[in-house]
Amino acid sequence: MLKKLLSRPMRLPRLKPYVPSPDDPAIFWFNSERDDIIREVVRRLVERYAHDRASLEYALNEVAFHETRRLEGQRDEEAKAALGYWRGLLRRIARMSDDAKRDALRGIAQRMARDIAGNFDPRVYSLATRVTPRLLTGVMRPASLPQDLASLGAPAIDEMLRAEGELDLLKRLEKIGTLVYVPTHSSNLDSIALGYSLMREDLAPVVYGAGKNLFTNPIISFFMHNLGAYRVDRRVSARLYKEALKTYSCVMIERGYHSLFFPGGTRSRSGMLERHLKLGLAGTAVEAFARNQVFGIDRPVWFVPVTINYGLVMEAESLIEDHLKLMGEARYIIEDDEFSQVDRWVTFFRKLIGTQGACVIRYGRPVDCFGNTVDDDGRSVAPGGTVVDPGTYVWRHGAPVLDAHRDAAYTRELGETLLDVYRKDTVLMQTQLTAHVLFRRLVRETPGVDLFGRLRFRGEVRMPREDFVRDLGETRDRAAAVESAGGVRLSRKLRKSTPEAILDESIAVWDGYHTRCVSRQVGSDIVAEDPTLLLYYQNRLVDYAQQVASDDDLPAAREISLLGAQA
Question: What is the pLDDT of residue 369?
Fold first, then answer.
């Protein structure tokens, strides 16, 4: 019954029309601006590529070639509808007049912009604030769904998701500038978890890009379509399309829409913290700030580093297998992982019921477009402690100017700042530390064996429970010392629980969700049953492996640290 309910298309209930008020966040006014935003995106794309014949012809040929090749490979309904147009365009370009070429470019840009542009319905947002947590609770306890929907008490999802960090500061800053949230990315649940967290903490909703493959889930599609998500078709490789995405992002930030994007680009297949960032969309925020300065709009743009930390990751098995198969050449989209399977959603949430702090979202201190820390009054503070005007970073000869090369350099520096904040604000979870201690023992007992060789040791490496508990407690204490020095964060449960409880709760969380047994107790021993999943969960500690190791474990920790260089 539950699967049938989750599989049905959702329709907007009959709700009263909503008239935005001046105090509402900018996104509540989005639909009234949507057509104008699309027109501005198209105007800029045409201006960028139609300024001379060579650029215009290149843009048309490039997009027609890539779209033809993509659709020939798809052989689906989209290909039937559009392949003929792209093939015909490829043949006609050389014979077309300049005016016809510009018209063709304008038409293509308009179709792309309209396909990308999102939607925001304040009625759905109001509905979501009331219903979403109850529905998620109902997934975990289907029999209690009617009571959960009617209840005034805290839903179970609130026990599972914890928000911490600079929440009060963000509430002040969002009223005087534009926030761009830049979280780590582990799961397709990230945008849902972060969106719900913003809603629960009374922070303004955001616009964000979501892969078109995610719109196949009827419930997720309904809410994403009506709550600001813009569509990103990662199958489209044409440069014009990528520029359309960047231009859309830039225009939205210019107009004061709080935004979200994942600078890692895609989910971390390995389970490690991001090590390389895709900064194209970050660059759009820097450009938006510069454009506003040029036009005399003094609206600050701040980046908010966010770490999203899970004790159990829904798609862990698919992600780590993909990482191991392609080692550095990960597919950009996994179409059929656990996220797309309704029964896996049900099992996942039921597994987490009653688990406090199963997901910890930590909001870091914002930085400006140039990596400067922001103080409690929203002022930019340079590394030396001097308050600076970020507008001066885009000045030349005393006036603000647009300069793409300059902004690209600033964006690269910003990327380094974000990576540094991620490392310091990552929240270590119980399952990750448990997996690390057991995987470290596996490395220690298999000297001279490479990673893939070690992954074959299924159920062969065991550790007396008494030794494991002692090692786990000592490792936790060393991690707490790293936390005290500002090098990482520990979850509240990891910090306060006994080593025995950390071990038992980790095994209990894994057991019954993953299709393979991660670890179990056999007699008085703890056994590494699945080194592959242990690798995934322990990989969150790669950057800290040597800091949390004893002298005896230091050689194994050094080997684990080297995994980061291979990512």
Answer: 96
> What is the pLDDT at residue 103?
96
The structural domain count of the chain equals 3
- For the chain, count helices (H), then strands (E): 23, 18
> Residues with Cβ < 8 Å from 5, sequence gap 6 or more?
none
* pLDDT tens digits along 228-260: 889 899 899 999 999 999 999 999 999 999 999
Whether the CA torsion 386, 391, 394, 399 is positive or negative: it is negative
Query: Quick one: 454 and 529 in the same domain?
Result: yes
Q: What is the pTM of this model?
A: 0.88
Residue 13 phi/psi, 5-degree rounding, is -60, 160
Distance (Å, whole) CA 28 – CA 12: 17
Encoded tokens for 509: 């969380």
For residue 32, the enclosing domain spans 26-112
Instruction: Locate the DSSP E strands across 432-537.
Output: 462-464, 489-490, 519-522, 525-528
Is residue 12 a part of any domain in this protein?
A: no
One-letter amino acid of 4: K
- Listed in sequence order, the DSSP H helices in 93-140 are 98-116, 122-140
pLDDT higher at 13 or 413: 413
